[in-house]
């Protein structure tokens, strides 16, 4: 009988319609009705530490000192990385850092510049 979607946060089936959005009474999550059609786009997008969507060619800034594995080099906070490329996997950013060379970064350690 209930044709409403389950909650994307807790998978509860007790969601209800509240005008322009759906609401989950169990966890308090609210989401847009149009989120159903955009759900595949949102799950595949890569987001930075602040939640901004990242795209190929963007510039990002490193927000934490990162040790380079197998070397004594460190990528310092505030290092700007230009023209990133998004890839699949745990380290979802492929880039080239001046003075260090090509490497892969996790999106959780960068913010959009």
UniProtKB/TrEMBL annotation:
The keyword DNA-binding does not apply. It holds the Pfam family Zn_Ribbon_YjdM. Residues 46-113 form the Protein YjdM C-terminal domain. Belongs to the YjdM family. GO terms for molecular function: hydrolase activity. Gene3D superfamilies: 2.20.25.10, SH3 Domains. InterPro entries: YjdM (IPR004624), YjdM_C (IPR013988), YjdM_N (IPR013987). This is Phosphonoacetate hydrolase. Signal peptide: none annotated. It comes from Vreelandella songnenensis. Keywords: Hydrolase. Residues 3-32 form the Protein YjdM N-terminal domain.
């Amino acid at each position: 009988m209930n044709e409403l979607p389950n909650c994307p946060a807790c998978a509860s089936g007790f969601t209800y319609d509240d005008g322009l959005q759906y609401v989950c009474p169990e966890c308090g999550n609210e989401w847009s009705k149009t989120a159903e059609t955009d759900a595949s786009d949102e799950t595949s997008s890569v987001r930075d530490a602040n939640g901004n969507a990242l795209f190929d060619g963007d510039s990002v800034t490193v927000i934490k000192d990162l040790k380079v594995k197998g070397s004594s080099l460190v990528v310092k906070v505030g290092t700007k990385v230009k023209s990133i490329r998004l890839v699949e996997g745990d380290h979802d950013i492929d880039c080239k850092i001046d003075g260090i060379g090509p490497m892969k970064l996790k999106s959780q350690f960068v913010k959009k510049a």
